[in-house]
Amino acid sequence: MSQHTILLDKHLQYGAKIVDFAGWQMPINYGSQMEEHKQVRTDAGMFDVSHMVVLDLEGGKVIDFLKYLLANDVSKITSSAGKALYSCMLNERGGVIDDLIVYYLNQQWFRMVVNAATREKDIAWIKQHAAAFDVSVKEGTSLAMIAVQGPNAIEKALSVMSADCKQVASGLKRFVGQPCGDWFIGRTGYTGEDGFEIMLPETEAATFWDKLAEAGVKPIGLGARDTLRLEAGMNLYGTDMDEQTSPLQAGLGWTIAMQDEREFIGREALAAEKAAGPVMKFVGLVLQGKGVLRGHQKVVIEDDAEGEITSGTFSPSMGVAIAMARVPAQTTDRVKVDMRGKLVDAKVVKMPFVRDGQVCVEV
Amino acid sequence: MSTIPEEMRYTSSHEWVKLNDDGTVSVGITEHAQELLGDIVFVETPEIDTEFTAGEACCVVESVKAASDIYMPISGEVVDTNGELTDTPDIINSSPYDDGWIFKIKPANEDELEGLMDAQAYEDSIEE
């Protein structure tokens, strides 16, 4: 069944090419993906991300619950209201069920944003474990979500917000979100640029979209969303990691909080994996020849060991092909990529490739 | 709907073919093809002097989205390639039928052109 967000008519009005994404009719671009990408890196763009899933978790033991459910530790964010945390939710084998953002709102209330493609299994999994902690799981319905991203995103978004929301939004530090009436504004994103992710009632979404457009914020499709997040070194669930992948082999070791004795789902499996030592690691690649790196291309290192590209694209900011790849742990600074039968040199780099408009790696 | 030039012939794999005054044949991809591919970032043109038979994959056009083979519309020998594509491959997006030509061949047999679609037939084929 094909679903669409409340903004579909707006996308069509703004000239979008519509594609199916996880059962949703979403804009892939509004003309040129490349121009949209550059718009976000140099000015401001807006994304309809209303297909993503908002969950409100409430209960007296919600902190204990999330400390058990998530591989990252929500204790990191309970010092002040609105702080956000990126985490993986793992199965018992240490595989990634989903990656998500969770906001701490108060001792009894967290708001979580999970992926659209994993909606059903996520909710089922969360509810299954929430019962023992007496935590309620409510899906935010009738909410739209618009991300506004880019060096001028904050200024332009603030210019079209209500006085109340403007006051709330202008005081937000990076990676913090706050409610404002029935809106919720987070200073978060998936592009490597500053900006907001704004949840608002569906009934107000089209008007807000138009106002942002009038302020010079251009609509950006899923195509540019993918090249922006890849440049920013941000993983995409289902592509860079899934239930068969350990976060330790997906570049997500930094999100696994194992310093103390906290018991969380998947911990034992990860501890065993750590004890055994790394087999594969997750790296960035920059192609040293012509062509475009693509997902599933084979990566070859010396002594015939192999890895695989998980996400690849042409980087509009760098003018060369870049990729994320899972490669043997012994990989050094050079690899070869099997591109349609030809072995082409690629350089191994530390991600991100681009952050806040600046290229961070050597081409 | 964009206009499909009348003076060209077309393949079902979305190449266009134009017979030039000097007897060579220019080849490119159609407006419809460039739209499907999206922003083109790299073109691997065929080697000059190489002979291909009709239907053979002879070069690659890569967009941000995908890599796509270009098939030789009629048999012949490559005599020229569009050097502009090295630095500005996106001219295929902005001018697929003109500045964005990809290569020229000396046809083995000009009559093979008759086997390709005319503008009307191509238009009908992509509307299906």
CATH topology descriptor of the largest domain in chain A? Gyrase A, domain 2
Give the rounded overall mean pLDDT of chain B: 95
* Silhouette of chain A: globular
Structure class of chain A: alpha+beta
The domain tally of chain A reads 2
| Total number of beta strands of chain B | 9
For the record, the CATH architecture of the largest domain in chain A stands as 2-Layer Sandwich
Biggest interface goes to: A-B, 14 and 13 residues
Q: What key attributes describe this structure?
A:
A: 363 residues, Elongation Factor Tu (Ef-tu), domain 3, six-stranded antiparallel beta barrel, 23% helix, B: 128 residues, alpha+beta, OB fold (Dihydrolipoamide Acetyltransferase, E2P), 4 helices, 9 strands, globular
What is the fold's blueprint, element by element?
The complex is a heterodimer of chains A (363) and B (128).
Chain A: E1 3-4, H1 8-13, E2 17-21, E3 24-29, H2 33-42, E4 45-48, E5 53-58, H3 62-69, E6 84-90, E7 96-106, E8 109-114, H4 119-130, E9 136-139, E10 143-149, H5 153-158, H6 163-170, E11 177-180, E12 183-186, E13 195-201, H7 202-214, E14 218-219, H8 222-231, H9 267-276, E15 280-287, E16 298-300, E17 306-315, E18 320-328, E19 334-339, E20 342-349, E21 354-355, E22 358-359
Parallel strand pairs in A: 1-3, 4-14
Antiparallel strand pairs in A: 2-3, 4-10, 5-8, 5-9, 6-7, 7-8, 10-13, 11-12, 12-13, 15-18, 15-20, 16-17, 16-19, 17-18, 19-20, 21-22
Helix pairs in contact in A: 2-8
Chain B: E1 9-10, E2 15-19, E3 25-29, H1 31-37, E4 40-44, E5 51-52, E6 57-63, E7 67-71, E8 76-81, H2 84-87, H3 91-94, E9 103-107, H4 119-127
Give an overview in words.
The complex is a heterodimer of chains A (363) and B (128). With 363 residues, chain A is an alpha+beta fold. Chain A is built from nine helices and 22 strands. Chain A folds into two domains: 1-276, Probable tRNA modification gtpase trme, domain 1 (Gyrase A, domain 2, 2-Layer Sandwich); 278-359, Elongation Factor Tu (Ef-tu), domain 3 (Beta Barrel). In chain A, the strands form five sheets. Chain A has a six-stranded mixed β-sheet with strand order 11-12-13-10-4-14. A six-stranded antiparallel beta barrel of chain A has the order 15-18-17-16-19-20. The longest helix of chain A has 13 residues, at 202-214. Chain A starts with a strand and ends with a strand. Chain B has 128 residues and is of the alpha+beta class. Chain B has a single domain (9-127), classed as Beta Barrel (OB fold (Dihydrolipoamide Acetyltransferase, E2P)). Chain B has helices at 31-37, 84-87, 91-94, 119-127, and strands at residues 9-10, 15-19, 25-29, 40-44, 51-52, 57-63, 67-71, 76-81, 103-107. In chain B, strand 1 and strand 2 (15-19) form a beta hairpin. Chain B starts with 8 loop residues before the first strand and ends with a helix. The model of chain B has no long low-confidence stretch (mean pLDDT 95). The chains are: A alpha+beta (363), B alpha+beta (128). The A-B interface holds A 29, 32-34, 223, 227, 290-292, 294, 313-314, 316, 340 and B 38-39, 41-42, 44, 60, 62, 64-67, 90, 93.
